[in-house]
C-alpha cells in the first residue's frame, strides 16, 4: 500500500537504539537500511517492515532528494526524549514544544497517507468536503491508538497536502512552513537555501570554518547552475566571500554558537571580561595563590629514634639510622601549593608545599620567601644566575577574596611595610590568569611523578593514584623546583617572548629594586595579631607559655608610660598587640608605639625557646606528659619524652581513617620544621644582605625598637596670609641732645681714692630719711 525508494529516510522506533535510517537496498523480500549518515546496516523483512509501518513504529521522515531544513532537523530530534543528568529544565521545555509540533505534523501525515491509500484503492477522489471529513472521523480511533491526540485537521488541509501526490507524504512535507531564511533578492531562492545549508554545516561541526563552508557552497552553486536549475534572470555569479561571511555573522547567534562551542564557553565569551594585570617593572605586582596539588604525598617517619632533629639528643637515645635506610611511610595526603609569580617577568618568586589549608601562616610564609634571597637555589644551580636571582619587597600583592586574607593581620602587616593589597575580582579567572597558568605548569610537572595524576583529563579519579605515592614534600619540592629553574625560567615565555629569568634581571638593572631595612622586622610583622594581651614587668603570658626579656619589657613600659595602668611605685600592666605564628612557639612579637615597629620576646622555657614546634603540638605534648613537663626537670629529660610523644603519634597515624588522620597528621607536622625552602627557615639567623661581598650580617633584635620607623610629624597649621597694606611713612628719628660730660674718676694714689669714698658716704648719709 506504499512505495519505497532508495535514499528514503525512515525513523525506526522499535529497535533498542531508535534513530534515523536511510534505505540503501531494496528487493521483494527485504529492505536494507543504514543508520544516517554512516552507521550500522540493518536488514528487515519486507512484510515485517510493512506491519511496523502500519502500526506506527516506523515513520517516514523524508523522501529521496528532499532537503531537510534546520528547523525540520530540530523537530525530528524531538522524536527521541533527551536523557541524562545534564538535561536542564529549559531543555525539557524546548523538547516538549518541539514534540507538540512534531505530533501536529505526524497527525497530518497519518490522515494524508490514509487518504492517498483510499484514493489509490477507489481510483477516484472523495467527492465533497463532508465526505472527506467523515472519512477522517472514521479513522480517528486508529489515530488515537497511535497517540496522535484529539486534533483532527480540516479537509482543506488534507487536500492541499496530497495535491498532485501519488506516494506517501513524509514528515518534512507536513511540518509547518517557516519563513524563508533569506528573503528573495538578487540571487535565486535556491542560492540562499544552499548558503544556509553551508553555514549550518559549520555549526553542526561537519565543516571546520567559514572559509571551508564557502568553498563547499561555491562548488554546489556552480553544480546547481550547470545542471539546469536556472537563474531566471537573476545574478549568475555566486555571492563573494565577503557577502557569505556577512551571512555567517548574522547566523552566529547564541543558539548556534552553543551547538558549536558548548554552553559554558559561549556564556563566557558573551560576558564582559576583566583585563588581567600588567606591570612595567619587576616586583611592581606579585600574585600569590594557593591551590590543592594534583599529587599524593607521603608522610614519612624522619627516623626510628630521633624524630625531630631540632630537639637535643640525650645519652639514652640510640644512634641515628643511616641515610640508606628507607623511612617508614605513615600516611598519604594531597599537599597544598602556595605560589607567587612576578607579573612583569612571569618569574617564580616563591613555591611552598604544605598540608595546611589556606591561612595567614601559609600566605606569610610565601611572602617571606618572595623577599628572601634564594641562597639554596644558587647553591644547587651555580651556573644559572639569572634563573635563581629573584627576591625583593613587592609594591602590590594580589590575593584571593578569602576570609583569612581580609584580616587586620594581613592588611596592617603589609601596610607597615608599604606594600599595597589588591583583591582579585570575583568570578573572573582572567584577573589572575598569569598565576593560574604558572600553577598549571607546576601541576603538569607533578602529574608525571609517582602519585601524580593529570589535570587535563576530567575523567581521572584522584583516589586511584593514592597507592602510587612514594615522595614526601621535600622530595616533591626538589623535583618541581628543578623543572621550574632549568626550563621555565630559561625558555621564552609565551606572554612576553623572553625568558623570565633574563627579563627579571634586566628589569632590576634598569628600574632598581626596593630593600628592607631589617629582615627581623619582616619576620615579626608577618604574623597573626592578638589584640588586648597584657604586658607586665614579668613579661607576657600567652597560650600557656611565658615570654619575657627584661630590657625590652622595661623599654616598652617606659615608651607606653602614658597608657600604663597602676599607681606610682606599684606593679603596672599594659594592653598590647601580640604578633605570633601558629607553627612556632619559640617567640612572640610585641608592637611598639605607632604600630609600625615590633620587638621580640623569647619563650622563657629553654626547651621551647629553640624548638620549632607549634602551639597545638606543645599543648598536646604537655597534656600527654603532664608530670614530666614541669620546670624542675632539665630540658634533656623533657626532650626525651617529647620524642616519645612523636613516636606515639607516628604509630597511631597508620591505624586511623583518612578523615580522622587529618588532625593527627597536622599535629605531627606541627611538631616538625616547616616544610618550606631552607632559606626562609634560617634567614633570621644569617642575613645575606647583598651579593657584593657583604654577607653573614647578624642584626641584634635589641636594635629593632631604636632603628624602627619614626613617628610622622604633622606640620603646624597656619592660616592664610592676610592681604598686605601699603606701608605708612616712618616718622623722622628724634634728635637727642648730647649728655653732659661726666667727670673722670682717675686717682693717682690710694689715699685720694679713700678720701673720695668717705665724701660720698657722708653725702649719702645726709640724704637718708
TrEMBL record:
Residues 729-741 have a biased composition (Pro residues). It comes from the Bacteria. Residues 715-724 have a biased composition (Basic residues). Residues 708-744 are annotated as: Disordered. GO terms for molecular function: nucleic acid binding. Residues 308-508 form the Integrase catalytic domain. One of its GO terms (biological process) is DNA integration. This is Transposase.
Amino acid at each position: 500500500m506504499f512505495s519505497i525508494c532508495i535514499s528514503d529516510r525512515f525513523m525506526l522506533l522499535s529497535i533498542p537504539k531508535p534513530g534515523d535510517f536511510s534505505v540503501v537496498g531494496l528487493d521483494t523480500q527485504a529492505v536494507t537500511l543504514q543508520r544516517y549518515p554512516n552507521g550500522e546496516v540493518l536488514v528487515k523483512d519486507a512484510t515485517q517492515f510493512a506491519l511496523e509501518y502500519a502500526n506506527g513504529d516506523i515513520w517516514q521522515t523524508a523522501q529521496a532528494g528532499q532537503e531537510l531544513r534546520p528547523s525540520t532537523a530540530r523537530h525530528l530530534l524531538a522524536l527521541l526524549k533527551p536523557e541524562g543528568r545534564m538535561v536542564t529544565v529549559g531543555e525539557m521545555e524546548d523538547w516538549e514544544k518541539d514534540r507538540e509540533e512534531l505530533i501536529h505534523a505526524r497527525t497530518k501525515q497519518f490522515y494524508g497517507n490514509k487518504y492517498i491509500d483510499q484514493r489509490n484503492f477507489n481510483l477516484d477522489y472523495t467527492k465533497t468536503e463532508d465526505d472527506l471529513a467523515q472519512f477522517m472521523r472514521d479513522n480517528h480511533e486508529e489515530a488515537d491508538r497511535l497517540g496522535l491526540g484529539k486534533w483532527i485537521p480540516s479537509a482543506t488541509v488534507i487536500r492541499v497536502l496530497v495535491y498532485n501526490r501519488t506516494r506517501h507524504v513524509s514528515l518534512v512535507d507536513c511540518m509547518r512552513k517557516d519563513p524563508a531564511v533569506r528573503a528573495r533578492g538578487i540571487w535565486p531562492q535556491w542560492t540562499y537555501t544552499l548558503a544556509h545549508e553551508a553555514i549550518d554545516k559549520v555549526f553542526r561541526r561537519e565543516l571546520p570554518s567559514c572559509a571551508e563552508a564557502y568553498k563547499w557552497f561555491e562548488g554546489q552553486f556552480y553544480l546547481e547552475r550547470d545542471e539546469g536549475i536556472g537563474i531566471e534572470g537573476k545574478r549568475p555569479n555566486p555571492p563573494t566571500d565577503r557577502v557569505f561571511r556577512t551571512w555567517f555573522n548574522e547566523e552566529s547567534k547564541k543558539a548556534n554558537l552553543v551547538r558549536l562551542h558548548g554552553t559554558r564557553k559561549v556564556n563566557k565569551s558573551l560576558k564582559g571580561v576583566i583585563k588581567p594585570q600588567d606591570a612595567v617593572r619587576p616586583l611592581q605586582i606579585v600574585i600569590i595563590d594557593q591551590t590543592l596539588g594534583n599529587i599524593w604525598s607521603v608522610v614519612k617517619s624522619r627516623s626510628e629514634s630521633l624524630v625531630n632533629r631540632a630537639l637535643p639528643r640525650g645519652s639514652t637515645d640510640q644512634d641515628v639510622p643511616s641515610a640508606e635506610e628507607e623511612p617508614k611511610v605513615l600516611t598519604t595526603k594531597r599537599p597544598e601549593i602556595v605560589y607567587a609569580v612576578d607579573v612583569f617577568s612571569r618569574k617564580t618568586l616563591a613555591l611552598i608545599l604544605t598540608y595546611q589549608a589556606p591561612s595567614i601562616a601559609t600566605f606569610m610564609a610565601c611572602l617571606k620567601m618572595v623577599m628572601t634571597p634564594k641562597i639554596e637555589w644558587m647553591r644547587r644551580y651555580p651556573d644559572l644566575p639569572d634563573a635563581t636571582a629573584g627576591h625583593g619587597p613587592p609594591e602590590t600583592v594580589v590575593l584571593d577574596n578569602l576570609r583569612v586574607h581580609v584580616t587586620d593581620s594581613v592588611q596592617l602587616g603589609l601596610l607597615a611595610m608599604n606594600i599595597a593589597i589588591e583583591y582579585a575580582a570575583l568570578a573572573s579567572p582572567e584577573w589572575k590568569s598569569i598565576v593560574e597558568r604558572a600553577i598549571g605548569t607546576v601541576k603538569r610537572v607533578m602529574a608525571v611523578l609517582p602519585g601524580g595524576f593529570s589535570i587535563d583529563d576530567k575523567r581521572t579519579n584522584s583516589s586511584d593514584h593514592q597507592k602510587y605515592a612514594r615522595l614526601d614534600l621535600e622530595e616533591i619540592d626538589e623535583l618541581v623546583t628543578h623543572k621550574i629553574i632549568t626550563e621555565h625560567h630559561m625558555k621564552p615565555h609565551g606572554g612576553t617572548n623572553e625568558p623570565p629569568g633574563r627579563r627579571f634581571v634586566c628589569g632590576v638593572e634598569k628600574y632598581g629594586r626596593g630593600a628592607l631595612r631589617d629582615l627581623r622586622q619582616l619576620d615579626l610583622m608577618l604574623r597573626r595579631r592578638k589584640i588586648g594581651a597584657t604586658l607586665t614587668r614579668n613579661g607576657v603570658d600567652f597560650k600557656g607559655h611565658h615570654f619575657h626579656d627584661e630590657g625590652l619589657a622595661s623599654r616598652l613600659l617606659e615608651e607606653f608610660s602614658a597608657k600604663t595602668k597602676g599607681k606610682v611605685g606599684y606593679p603596672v600592666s599594659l594592653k598590647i598587640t601580640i604578633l605570633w605564628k601558629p607553627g612556632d612557639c619559640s617567640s612572640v612579637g610585641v608592637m611598639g608605639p605607632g604600630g609600625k615597629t615590633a620587638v621580640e620576646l623569647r619563650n622563657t622555657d629553654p626547651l621551647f625557646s629553640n624548638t620549632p614546634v607549634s602551639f597545638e603540638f606543645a599543648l598536646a605534648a604537655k597534656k600527654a606528659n603532664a608530670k614530666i613537663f614541669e620546670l624542675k626537670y632539665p630540658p634533656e629529660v623533657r626532650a626525651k619524652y617529647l620524642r616519645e610523644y612523636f613516636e606515639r603519634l607516628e604509630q597511631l597515624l597508620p591505624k586511623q581513617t583518612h578523615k580522622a588522620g587529618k588532625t593527627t597528621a597536622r599535629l605531627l607536622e606541627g611538631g616538625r620544621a616547616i616544610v618550606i625552602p631552607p632559606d626562609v627557615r634560617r634567614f633570621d639567623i644569617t642575613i645575606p644582605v647583598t651579593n657584593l661581598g657583604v654577607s653573614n650580617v647578624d642584626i641584634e633584635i635589641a636594635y629593632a625598637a631604636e632603628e624602627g620607623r619614626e613617628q610622622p610629624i604633622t606640620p603646624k597649621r597656619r592660616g592664610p596670609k592676610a592681604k598686605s597694606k601699603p606701608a605708612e611713612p616712618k616718622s623722622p628719628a628724634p634728635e637727642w641732645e648730647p649728655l653732659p660730660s661726666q667727670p673722670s674718676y682717675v686717682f693717682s694714689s690710694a689715699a685720694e681714692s679713700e678720701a673720695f669714698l668717705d665724701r660720698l658716704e657722708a653725702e649719702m648719709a645726709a640724704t637718708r630719711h
